[in-house]
Design brief:
By secondary structure, the chain is an alpha+beta fold. It folds into two domains: about 50 residues, no CATH class; about 70 residues, no CATH class. It is built from three helices and eight strands, in the order E-E-E-E-H-H-E-H-E-E-E. It has a four-stranded antiparallel β-sheet. The chain has a four-stranded antiparallel β-sheet with strand order 5-6-7-8, with helices on one face. The longest helix is centred in the first third of the chain and has 18 residues.
């Protein structure tokens, strides 16, 4: 039996039905490296689904969408990245709240929803 050390834990290489598997000895039993690999894969998948991708959407996307529609004097006042698809449309990952002057000269507060990386912006009023 060979012994290895990994992150302060003792690794044992054992022959199990013809296959060599590395096990980490813990106080509560043995955990194989395959178990650790499975845990890492599950964590990465969960992070991909629940991590707020709206973090990477710049404010300039909202400002550009509003300028294209004729708004001026634009001030982005808030950026919301949590559960945005429940508040906006499917595929939205960020909601910007902006205050701007509309094309007829009235000051309004509006939402700009956007996605990452390929979805454009959608302007919505209260």
């Amino acid at each position: 039996m060979l012994k290895f050390w990994c992150f302060g834990k003792k690794l044992k290489q054992e022959n199990s039905s013809g296959l060599f598997m590395k096990k980490i000895s813990t106080s509560k039993g043995n955990v194989t490296l395959y178990d650790l690999l499975g845990i890492v894969v599950v964590v990465v998948i969960l992070a991909a689904f629940f991590f707020p991708t709206g973090l990477w959407v710049p404010e300039s996307r909202a400002v550009s969408a509003l300028e294209t529609q004729g708004f001026s004097d634009i001030k982005v006042t808030d950026k919301d990245i949590w559960f945005v698809s429940l508040k906006g449309g499917h595929g939205d990952s960020v909601r910007f709240t902006a205050s701007a002057t509309n094309p007829i000269g009235k000051r309004v507060t509006i939402y700009v929803f956007s996605g990452w990386p390929f979805k454009g912006a959608t302007i919505r009023t209260f």
